[in-house]
Amino acid sequence: MHLQKVKPISPALMEEVGMTWHTDPDGQPYVADEIVQVTEAETEAYYTAANELYDMYVEAAQYVIDHDLFLELDIPFNLADQIRRSWDNDDRHLYGRFDFAGGVDGLPIKLIEFNADTPTSLFETAVVQWALLKANGMDEAAQFNTVYDSIRNNFRRLLTGEDEPENFDRYYNFQNILFSSIRNQPEDERTVRFLQQMASDAGFQTDFCYMDEVGFLEEEGIFNPSQTRFDYWFKLYPWEDIALQTDGINGILNDITRNTDTVILNPAYTLLFQSKGIMKVLYDLFPNSPYLLETRTEPLRGKKQVAKKMFGREGANTIIYDAAGSILKEQPGEYDRYRTIYQEFATYPKDAQERSYQAGVFFAWEGCGLGFRRGGEILDNLSKFVAHRVV
Questions:
Q1: Which residue of 81, 160, 323, 330 is most buried, as measured by CB atoms within 10 A?
Q2: How many Cβ atoms from other residues are within 10 Å of residue 88's Cβ?
């Protein structure tokens, strides 16, 4: 790893721009005071990998739908209708984030997972790492980072479709978008308000309210507390959690998407991408892809491997096994209710302190931004965000 020490952005400035989660529970800064130096060739390789993998995900999702493999991906039966409807309607996937091992230090790029439904680290990738270069007198453009423009243009594609997003004014007819996050979750709220800013910049009328303030009418649509009806609703709340709610919200959303023109972002079909079970489908369909690791629903024979839940976050419920099946490392968690997949172990690039680096590449129509997470072999909720610079 080629690292460069930099002067960190002060907590006060972080607070000023709305990033209140700048310090982790362990008391350490969340954003590292080092940056990863990458080459143009390495960023181009990340860009290509994200684009090619997204096309493969689309083909794999179609395969799952055609063969009714929802249960194999641990997707609740009560979401199947919404998934099919959003897929058939070609609802726009706004953005997602691929997590990769490798890509620097001579290691090949390998897909770890695709955070397609509710990806975070958006503000850090789009703004904070750019500001870090600027604050240190470096060329802030020396990054693989077009996140803001790419997502803004994807908002415009909600109306322009395959036409150029610059032609948005030809299609716009006072469309509006409501943005929502869970109350008392600062990182989620800042992410959602950042997306709202992009949508407003794209030309939409927008509003924000917390999830508990949103109104739902099965025959009419989705409303804010002022009783304004919205054409689109972006919620930073996982679809798999919506399926488990006992208040009937999933059925209400199903009726709304069936009876009205309301579109939910990210659409329900992104749960197909989010499920780690689809990586088995990908490997079955594209076994010779250089980006894919062998992935099965039963332990791999004679290989070092990682066991993880089909829906799990921040390394929870992850186990690393050696080739003989002995546990090397284990991270407990709260996702035991989900099925397990087994993925061939991939080597992360490491620094002199043996800290692992995982690349996150955002995707919005195309690969659009790179950032790194740093931690142990299992990257958990204490992982640090590490910016990059193209040299």
A1: 160
A2: 10
